[in-house]
C-alpha cells in the first residue's frame, strides 16, 4: 500500500470522519453516520483504495 492521500485531504478526512462518528455516537444522526469510520481510517492510514483504483494521488511526489 503506497501512500496516496496527502496533507489537506488527510486532515479533511480525519475531521469529517471523527465528526460523523461523534454525531453517530450521540444519536444526533442515524446509523448511516457510522460510515465515518471509512474517511477516518483512510485519513489515518494515508491510503485510499478508491484513489488506487482511479489512479488519483493527492500527496506530493518525492524527488529522488
How would you characterize the overall build of this protein?
- The chain is an all-alpha fold and 64 residues long.
- Helix content is 55%, strand content 0%.
SSE diagram, text form:
Layout: H1 7-26, H2 37-45, H3 49-54
Summary keywords:
about 60 residues, mainly alpha, about 55% helix
Helix and strand string, N-terminal first?
HHH
Structure annotation, total helices: 3
* Number of domain modules: 1
Which secondary-structure class do the elements indicate?
A: mainly alpha
User: Whole-number average pLDDT?
Assistant: 92
Distance between the termini: 19 Å
Low-confidence stretches: none
Number of distinct beta strands: 0
How much of the polypeptide forms β-strand, as a percent range? under 5%
Quick summary:
This protein is mainly α and 64 residues long.
